[in-house]
Design brief:
The structure is a homodimer.
Chain A (H helix, E strand, L loop, with lengths): L2 H9 L4 E2 L22 E3 L4 H14 L3 E4 L15 E4 L6 E5 L4 E5 L4 H9 L3 E2 L12 H7 L6 H4 L6 E7 L5 E4 L12 H5 L8 E8 L1 E2 L3 E9 L2 H15 L3 E8 H10 L13 E9 L2 H4 L8 H15 L3 E6 L3 H12 L1 H5 L6 E6 L5 H15 L4 E7 L4 E7 L5 H17 L15 H7 L2 H14 L16
Parallel strand pairs in A: 2-4, 3-4
Antiparallel strand pairs in A: 1-2, 5-6, 6-10, 7-11, 8-9, 8-10, 12-14, 12-15, 13-14, 13-17, 16-18, 17-18
Helix pairs in contact in A: 1-2, 7-10, 13-14
């Protein structure tokens, strides 16, 4: 019996796709830079089916690439010649427990569905980013996705209490649970999260839920400089006791592009400003969300007072506070259009890096200077999770030229390394950052990663060629 | 040249102890249950010396047990016949950076020294527990220590941004950094934290610091039941937006024992109560800490109002709020006397388990019932980080009998497993929980741990015989 016949037996009629037309959805991600044709697409519906598929592929030495929402930006789910193991039919939200504030979900649950399920209990699952309507929990776990609320709630790994993982040879590893303290041996949960499917396939997870903020204060702020913006962040964190949920920087050319590609939208301010910040503060305590006699809400008043003080000091040039849910939603829509804004022009070189907060301005200045030295006709655009020091930096070279693109990536990595930053903040490594891993990551750490990979997947069938570069 | 000569050359005159009198401090921990005589005590002063020691021991196939403050409770630092590698001379606080709110410290820094260093900048390092005056940061990292503030700030691993680790063969792995987002490959930081020195020796770390609360509201509360106590926790978390720092349960016999062994101390209440809770709420926002016209502080008022409401409902029987720093300090002293209270009687069987919050009462009831079935003359005593579901359960069998002690451990593990809990919450595995690991941990997870251990320490020289039980 051939492997494909075995897989068809395991998965049933809808479970295995081999016709190129049926597989179209899995042949590319939406960057368009990682086209690939899988040998077949396996679509299991249970952890047991994933286990059986892996056992069969392990016996056959067949490469397997786990895929969920296919919204990654680094080619991590590119499955050329491999079995694309799609989690898209494992969509059960097994439970939402308001008492323990946890939810148990399968890997194919789309993030926004989990948002809705939590919301029904007045709770939130705080992980959020632009692709939440397509991205699935499995991919978020595999890449340790970040997003706009990391400042308050942490990265994906900080939101997870338990996992079910299928290993390369099909064994099922039970790391499930909903405990807040558990020191029973090596922490395999954190090892599997962020491994981009190279060590195992996450099929289910228990995640933390949080009290839904009772009110939000959301504003667009034009700051005099990035330093002034960081002062705002520190002041409002101090005033609210750390209640800032999002602190997002959009430079002038981001706003320009957004206006151009989004008919009917308005500029945030009458004047054009260099440093546009979207800030959101969440009030979880009732006294911050109970309307005052004048109809205002304390959390909003607190933000507005801080902004007014800073305008007097000249640190803030303009500010608009959302006065309705619609205005708040418009502010978020502008920020969440980042992918459309960034990918509006081609060719592009898109990176995702992190530096310490005070180094963000140095990074941006230095990267632009060196970009223009490499290619005087180039341009760049950034959008920054400023509260995390996480810059999405996109360069637009004047021509499509692989050598030039490589030189730009190298330049960005140089600037980041000089600042003690990371060449990959929240998008992972996938294919696109293998060279950075080889060149920038501590060589001993790389050797340890290789040793772990070899120990857990000795035939190298799990997402081969990704994340961990070969020894040179 | 013998190994000891080589080590003496590396470490210099004060760096290697072989005389039993000099080594006395390293021959036992303070539980008294894990006596051991090391071959020698190596006391390096730099990461480079640790590296050279490990390279030499690796070449000689010599077992090495890293030791820091020796305050562990599970025998994890017991070094019979091994080189005890003591971090006690690596005591530099390399920097405290208020801007990035981080500190870079060597592994031998005593926790309370780091508290003081942070306090000088009006910041806190939130990890705290009774042994903080002896315990060192290296041991806290290796065991992923918990303590009393986990509810608000997380376990030790959540407080760490970077590590330096020396591997079994002496290679130095650089995982240092102070980034809030970093997805550059497998997460080796979380793998090393909590590994109890079986995969590498942590020599330095970058840890997070936090804004020092501007005021605390601290109270002793007699709740009508554990369920009522959990209702209090949920209500005060909701009212303060999640500002509860500690929520500690002490049963009546804890209070009795504390009174008996602590001359001059007073009972918390006029009457004896079953459910005594110490609660502390920290106010980080100025408006919660600014004295009102009547001299009270809003955070205290908020706590007192919540307590008053619950007294009316009959859920709380009595409550005392600390009116001065001295009263607060007395409340903490009672809770932090836990080790003296627990270890006042012998023989004992001390365990540290976690269950979901609503299951704590079930655990306590069931464990006592089954304890008395095993040994009608036995007694027990618990102290509980109730906000984390973390129970320190101590049984006092009527006689010293290894079989009976083993049966009691087994019984506790049975109750925990039935409730989906963990047999090790915050003290790690060490020697004392190897049987629990073998019997209770998912067998696939155990195999994965063994594979990782073999990959990173193929000769098995790092803290041999701890944490990961051999394959049966």
């Amino acid at each position: 019996m051939t492997l494909l016949t075995t897989l068809a037996d395991i998965l049933g009629p809808q479970g295995l796709l081999t016709d190129p037309a049926d597989m179209a959805r899995w042949t590319n991600d939406w960057t368009g830079y990682y086209p690939s044709v899988p040998l077949a697409v396996a679509r299991p519906t249970t952890t047991q089916q994933v286990s059986a598929v892996m056992a069969a592929c392990h016996a056959a030495g067949q490469a397997v690439v786990p895929v969920s929402g296919n919204t990654g930006l680094n080619g991590g789910a590119s499955a050329m010649g491999a079995i694309a193991l799609s989690l898209d039919r494992m969509t059960a939200i097994r439970n939402v427990d308001p008492d323990s504030r946890t939810a148990e979900v399968e890997a194919g649950v789309i993030i926004s569905r989990l948002h809705d399920a939590a919301d029904a209990h007045d709770l939130i699952f705080p992980l959020t980013f632009g692709a939440r309507g397509s991205a699935m929990i499995g991919g978020a776990l595999s890449t340790n996705a970040g997003g706009s609320n990391v400042l308050r709630y942490g990265n994906t790994r900080d939101l997870v209490l338990g996992l079910t993982v299928v290993l390369a040879d099909g064994r099922i590893m039970d790391l499930m649970g909903r405990l807040h303290k558990d020191n029973s041996g090596l922490n395999l949960r954190h090892l599997m999260i962020g491994a981009e499917g190279t060590l195992g396939i996450i099929t289910a997870a228990t995640v933390k839920l949080f009290t839904k903020p009772r009110a939000y204060a959301t504003a667009m702020v034009a700051a005099a400089s990035l330093d002034a913006a960081l002062t705002l962040l520190h002041r409002i964190q101090a005033a609210t006791g750390g209640a800032v949920e999002a602190f997002e920087y959009m430079p002038a050319n981001y706003i320009d592009t957004h206006l151009r590609i989004t008919p009917g939208t308005k500029a945030p301010f009458a004047d054009r400003h260099d440093v546009n910040i979207m800030i959101e503060v969440g009030a979880t305590a009732p006294r911050d969300a109970t309307p005052l006699d004048d109809g205002s809400v304390p959390i909003v008043t607190l933000l507005e007072e801080t902004l007014a003080e800073m305008m007097e000091d000249g640190l803030i040039l303009d500010a608009v506070t959302a006065q309705s849910e619609q205005q708040r939603s418009d502010m978020w829509a502008r920020r969440e259009a980042a992918s459309e804004v960034i990918f509006d022009r081609r060719p592009f070189v898109n990176t995702d890096i992190a530096v310490a907060l005070p180094d963000v301005q140095t990074f941006l200045t230095e990267a632009r200077k060196r970009l223009l030295a490499l290619d005087p006709g180039a341009d760049d655009l950034s959008v920054v999770h400023l509260g995390d020091g996480n810059v999405h930096y996109t360069a637009y070279p004047s021509k499509e030229d692989p050598d030039l693109s490589a030189a730009i990536r190298e330049m960005v990595d140089d600037v980041v390394q000089d600042l003690g930053g990371s060449f990959s903040a929240e998008h992972g490594v996938g294919l696109s950052k293998l060279d950075s891993m080889a060149k920038r990551k501590d060589p001993v750490a790389l050797d340890v990663m290789r040793a772990i990979k070899d120990a857990l997947d000795p035939s190298g069938i799990l997402n081969p060629g990704k994340v961990i570069p070969p020894k040179r």
